[in-house]
């Protein structure tokens, strides 16, 4: 019975892995759409919250489904976004710098989210 339970567990996990991988293009598309709607002079709080929520979800679940680097990069973007939101005012150039990082993340994730991250010197 234990072997059957293990087989069922791993079959279900494989199904969830496939579901996660299949949802990545849509998730990355949501990030790209939010980025394209982002006004660096007056960023809408709801859009910032949306970006944070998507990045937080990716950061928390990606490694579970075999996308360790994707999760790490999402966490770094999420943390940087959280820092920016702690300030009363953020210069448009600071938002542009963060959005440029988001652009790299989305472009990379759209091609091969299990590949080495661009300019990653850790060799991960």
Automatic annotation (TrEMBL):
One Pfam family linked to the record: Hpt
Transmembrane segments: none
InterPro entries: HPT_dom_sf, Sig_transdc_His_kin_Hpt_dom
Domain HPt: 18-102
Parts forming coiled coils: none
Keyword presence, Repressor: no
The organism's place on the tree of life at top rank: Bacteria
Gene3D superfamilies linked to this entry: HPT domain
Name of the protein: HPt domain-containing protein
Annotated source species: Telluria antibiotica
Lineage: Bacteria, Pseudomonadati, Pseudomonadota, Betaproteobacteria, Burkholderiales
């Amino acid at each position: 019975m234990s072997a059957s339970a293990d087989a069922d567990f791993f079959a279900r996990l494989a199904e969830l892995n496939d579901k996660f991988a299949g949802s990545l293009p849509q998730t990355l598309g949501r990030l790209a759409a939010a980025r394209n709607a982002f006004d660096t002079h007056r960023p809408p709080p709801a859009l910032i919250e949306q970006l944070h929520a998507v990045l937080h979800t990716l950061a928390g679940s990606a490694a579970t489904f075999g996308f360790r680097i994707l999760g790490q990069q999402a966490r770094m973007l999420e943390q940087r976004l959280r820092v920016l939101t702690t300030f009363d005012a953020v210069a448009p150039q600071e938002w542009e710098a963060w959005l440029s990082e988001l652009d790299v993340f989305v472009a990379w994730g759209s091609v091969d989210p299990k590949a080495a991250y661009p300019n990653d010197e850790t060799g991960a």
